[in-house]
Specification:
alpha/beta, UDP-N-acetylmuramoyl-L-alanine:D-glutamate ligase, 9-stranded mixed beta sheet, 8 helices, globular
C-alpha cells in the first residue's frame, strides 16, 4: 500500500441523534450521543488507513484536552500525526451536529478558534517519502503555497484537491492539482444545475485535471484527462442512517482506486458504492472490510 499525506482540518464532533429535527424554541431529548474526531480531511485519512495505506495527517491542533483527544483518536485509527502542529491557547474546531434518525440528514453548527495549518510548517515535511498528496480547499493563500511547493518537489506523485465550499480566490488552486473533487453545493453555488455544464467552466481553469463532482442522490459525474465524461449512479442503502462524512468517504474511495492504478471511471464507481455503504451505517469505523 501507499504513503499518503493529507492536509486539512480535524474537528471535535459532538453528535446528537434525534427522532426529528427540532423547530425553533423546541426542547427535545437526544436518543443518543457520540463524541469523536471528525472533519473532512481527518475522515478521509481515517478511511484510507482502513484500506491499509500509511496515512500522515498535517493539521493544527489545540494543545488542550480536546486536542489530545483528537490526536489519540487519530492514532487509534492508525493515522500518523507526526506533522501535526500543536498550538497553546484557543480551542479545537468543534462541530455541534444534530443527526435526524428518520432521514439520516445532519445539521451542523461549527465553531472555530484556532489558526490554520501554515506553509512554514508544511515546507518542513519530507515530501519525497509520499506517494500521494491530498489537500482541502481552504486557507487559500497558504494552501496555494503548499501546492506550488509540492509541484516543485514531487517527482510524479499525484495531487488531489477537495473543493467543497466557495472561498475567496479558490480558483487559484484549481490548476495546481491533478484530481479535483467538487461538491454539488459548490457547483450550484456557481449557478450550475448540472455537472456537465459546470465542468465546462472548470476545464477552462484546470485544462489537465481529472474532474469529479458528486450530486447527492443522483450519484456523481466525472470528466477524465481525455475529456471523456461519464455519470455514475448512487448506490443507496436499504435504509439511510447517517449521511455525515459521506463526501469524505467518497473522496477516500477515489484516492484509493486511482492510487492503485484504476481508471477514473472505476474509481468513481467504487467511491459511489463506498459512500452508499457509509450512509447505511453509523460513523465511519469498520467501513472497509
Amino acid at each position: 500500500m501507499s504513503h499518503i499525506l493529507i492536509v486539512g482540518i480535524a474537528t471535535l464532533d459532538i453528535i446528537n441523534i434525534v427522532n426529528h429535527y427540532p423547530v425553533e424554541d423546541e426542547e427535545i431529548r437526544a436518543l443518543s450521543q457520540r463524541i469523536n474526531c471528525g472533519g473532512n480531511a481527518a475522515n478521509t485519512a481515517s478511511i484510507l488507513t482502513q484500506y491499509g495505506h500509511k496515512t500522515e495527517f498535517a493539521v493544527t491542533l489545540a494543545d488542550e484536552p480536546d486536542g489530545h483527544r483528537i490526536r489519540d483518536q487519530l492514532t487509534a485509527r492508525l493515522v500518523a500525526t507526526n506533522y501535526c502542529r500543536f498550538v497553546r491557547g484557543g480551542k479545537v474546531p468543534t462541530s455541534y451536529i444534530t443527526l435526524n434518525q428518520k432521514t439520516g440528514s445532519r445539521t451542523i453548527v461549527h465553531y472555530r478558534d484556532l489558526p490554520e495549518y501554515e506553509y512554514e510548517h508544511f515546507k518542513q515535511i519530507p515530501l519525497e517519502t509520499f506517494d500521494w498528496f491530498h489537500f482541502e480547499g481552504r486557507n487559500i493563500p497558504a494552501v496555494k503555497q503548499m501546492l506550488i511547493n509540492t509541484q516543485q518537489r514531487r517527482v510524479d506523485q499525484p495531487i488531489s484537491l477537495e473543493v467543497e465550499k466557495e472561498r475567496e480566490d479558490i480558483d487559484d488552486l484549481l490548476p495546481l492539482a491533478d484530481v479535483l473533487l467538487f461538491s454539488k453545493s459548490f457547483a450550484t453555488g456557481r449557478g450550475f444545475n448540472n455537472a456537465p455544464e459546470f465542468f465546462e467552466l472548470i476545464r477552462r481553469l484546470a485544462p489537465e485535471a481529472m474532474l469529479v463532482c458528486t450530486w447527492g442522490e443522483q450519484g456523481a459525474w466525472l470528466r477524465d484527462t481525455n475529456n471523456t465524461e461519464h455519470h455514475v449512479p448512487a448506490y443507496p442503502p436499504p435504509r439511510v442512517i447517517d449521511t455525515l462524512a459521506a463526501g469524505d468517504t467518497f473522496n477516500a474511495g477515489i484516492i484509493h482506486c486511482l492510487n492503485n492504478g484504476n481508471t477514473l471511471l472505476e474509481a468513481v464507481k467504487h467511491a459511489c458504492q463506498l459512500a452508499g455503504l457509509k450512509v447505511g451505517q453509523s460513523g465511519i469505523d469498520g467501513l472497509v472490510l
